[in-house]
Amino acid sequence: MANQYDISISPDTVDMSLTVTFTVTVTNRGPSDESAAPAEGALGDPPPATNAVVIKIPYGNRDTDLTPSLGSGGGTPITPGWNSGQKTTSSGIVFVFWPAKGTKFDVGAQAQMTLPPLVISTVASGPSTVQTLTTLGGVDESQDITVTKQLPPLAVLNFTATPGTVGARQRTTLAWQVTGASQVQITPNVGTFLAPNKFLWNSSTTALPSQTQGQTNFQAIAMTGDQRQKSAPITVYLSSPSASLSLSTNGPIDASDAQGNWTQVIASWTTEYATTAWLSDGSSNDQVALQCPSYPLTPGASLVGSGNTVTETLTAKGFSPPATSPQTITFNPARILYFKYVDPGLTSFTFQAVGSTNGGGAVTQPMPGGPYIFTVTGPGGPLVQYLGKNDTHTQVMYFNADPTSVASGGSVTLSWITNNATSLLLQPGNVPLTVVPNFGVGTTTVNPTATTNYVLTATGPSGTVTSALTVTVPA
């Protein structure tokens, strides 16, 4: 008498060493008065003792075993309203497939599940018996299903290149997955590799693509001793380099600070597919690392004459053509903060400039007894101021604050001595001041509420000069 429930497993012929996902199909063939199998439990419940289909896969190291081990996991139901699971019995691990409560299983209907992926045993080829037990609807039936293990065919299952795009002199890793081969040859000009067996073989090697063309077509050729072959291609591309340069600021900045120290700009860059990289500002050309997250630059040191821009260019070299990434930095004009005597007696002098490219400026006295000359080079320059009684240029010879630090709202006396000036203006506030005779002291009182930079501008027949000082108001 035929079974009411027919069970089949697909595929029924499998290749040794490969991973297979089996599909189990249960068919209700009758009798005609059976419309459904009684159900118990709900979806997700543990496998029941009855009213289920039990599938016993032979596993271990025997010739007749289908897989070395079952691992964990109970498979996946395909048919809605059915459960699947795995449990341990006295005879080993089995898979269980059963309907949830309220699920009908009519005559002629089918229910399916997939088992977890299984690696097919390599111990021996031949038949393997899968045992099944059915207790659906109170019917107790068993059925043996034969699954045949066979040697895998000659095939290249997979052939990859990582990375698939490289730069000049950069290698790629060629990886292959073959079956049924005694050796694998990788062309062009890579090598021949002996297979350890004719089962599934995964291996890899590195290769240098052609350095004279944009792509190389590699082939993996799986071969047997009787000269049968299977092959698979992969293309590796040789790319021109790319470069990307970034700066912490593109300006405008001062070339240097008031102490003559160069202003720093932080550069960072990346390249791709490059063999070497160079950073140039027009006056220097330095080889640098291909990748750099932080690199200090002093672009003011590369300013030429009165120019106010410097262009930093990253060049990446590799497979032709090279790539460039320029970044232009702009600069504020150089400024003389002051060139003055340190006391009303006009005995010794001090000076300070911002944005200079000659170390904060230089003071000379071309003729004995003549004026001192302060020269500042840099953007917008050169700047020149004169200091000395025996001179016709407009000068702020002395500019002082007493005290230089005061509480908020406190009184500060500003005093000055000018030479060859016709008008004076105090900032902040655009305050006009009385012009005193040359070498005479002028004063005014200010009451700063915060730290303030005061600038005295003197205008005369030879032009305009400024002198600056700071009064500090502590927080």
CATH topology of the largest domain: the name is Immunoglobulin-like
Between the first and last Cα atoms, what is the distance in angstroms? 103 Å
Mean pLDDT value: 94
Helix content: under 10%
DSSP strand (E) fraction? over 45%
Dominant shape: elongated
Under the CATH scheme, which architecture of the largest domain would be assigned?
A: Sandwich
Computed Rg = 45 Å
Unreliable spans? 32-36
Indicate how many domains the architecture comprises: 4
Strand order of the largest sheet: 2-12-11-5-8-7
CATH class of the largest domain: Mainly Beta
Per DSSP E runs of 2 or more residues, the count of β-strands stands at 39
The major beta sheet can be summarized as: 6 strands, mixed
Total helical elements: 0
**Which structural class best describes the helix and strand composition?**
mainly beta
Give a quick set of tags describing it.
six-stranded mixed beta sheet, 4 domains, Immunoglobulin-like, 0% helix, five-stranded mixed beta sheet
